Amino acid sequence: MASMELAGGDSLREEFGALVTEHSRSMFRAARALLDCDADAEDAVGEAILRAWRKREQLRDPAAGRAWLLKITVNCAYEQRRRAARLLYTDQVEGIAGDAEDRPVSHLWEAVLRLPGDQRAVVTLYYYEDLPVKEIARILGVAQGTVKSRLGRARARLKQMLREEEDP
Fold first, then answer.
1. CA–CA distance, 99 with 149 (Å, rounded to integer)
2. In this structure, is the dihedral angle defined by the CA atoms of residues 21, 22, 26 and 27, taken in order, positive or negative?
3. Which candidate, 126, 95, 100, 114, places its Cα nearest to that of 162?
4. Non-local CB neighbours of 102 within 8 Å, separated by 6+ positions
5. Which has more confidence, 150 or 4?
6. Residue whose C-alpha is closest to residue 141's, from 44, 9, 18, 34
7. How confident is the model over 65-88, as pLDDT tens digits?
8. Cα–Cα nearest to 20, from 41, 50, 40
9. Residue 154 and residue 119 in contact, taking contact as beta carbons nearer than 8 Å
10. 3-state DSSP of the chain
11. 56 Cβ neighbours under 8 A, 6+ residues apart
12. 51, 72 Cβ separation under 8 angstroms
């Protein structure tokens, strides 16, 4: 992005906009893997885009733009999840009690969304975003072995959930 600044403000905005447009679906999937609803994921992506724009000079290699945006998105989603965990409204209490576990899984993505957050994130980044374990570890700020073990546990859990769906 540093080279974009030499070309002028309009060019910078256009190139940044193109980068975000190209990777917006990946950003949403990463955020949605960590958050419980589409609206929260959209909020996290919006915040990530704003932060990325403010820190655009930190991106030295445009080829790393996707990983850079995903890292910012994951951080925003984690922050949003921490903030949301502090709030509990009384009208939500009834919906929390076992509701997600009782629903049958009808699609693989729905099964992925029912995984614990740490497993959901690695599955989304590995299978849906085709990122290598090393890059996922860097984005999530964990060891490569942690990513591998989370993937293993997630695969086993997905297999179990899909079997349960087949044999009710």
1. 27
2. negative
3. 114
4. none
5. 150
6. 34
7. 999 999 999 999 988 888 766 554
8. 50
9. yes
10. CHHHHHHCHHHHHHHHHHHHHHHHHHHHHHHHHHCCCHHHHHHHHHHHHHHHHHCHHHCCCHHHHHHHHHHHHHHHHHHHHHHHHCCCCHHHHHHHCCHHHHCCCCCHHHHHHCCCHHHHHHHHHHHHCCCCHHHHHHHHCCCHHHHHHHHHHHHHHHHHHHHHHHCC
11. 1, 12, 16
12. yes
Q: Is the pTM of this model over 0.90?
A: no
Each residue of 20-39: b (16+ CB within 10 Å) or e? beebeebbbbbbbbbbeeee
- Token pair of 111 as six digits: 């099964």
- 41-65 tens-digit pLDDT: 999 999 999 999 999 888 888 889 9
